[in-house]
Amino acid sequence: MNESIRLECTVCHERNYTTTKNKKNTPDRIVLKKYCSRCKKRTDHKEAK
Asked: What is the pTM of this model?
């Protein structure tokens, strides 16, 4: 059930990180605070399509 997903910065829209999530437990999109090397600060990263 685990699926690899890409995380995209909400400010500059660069796809920086990959992670896995269980689609059965968390069907909606996840949002994590991560460091963006392009923005040079911590921003929210959403699950990309």
From this structure: 0.84
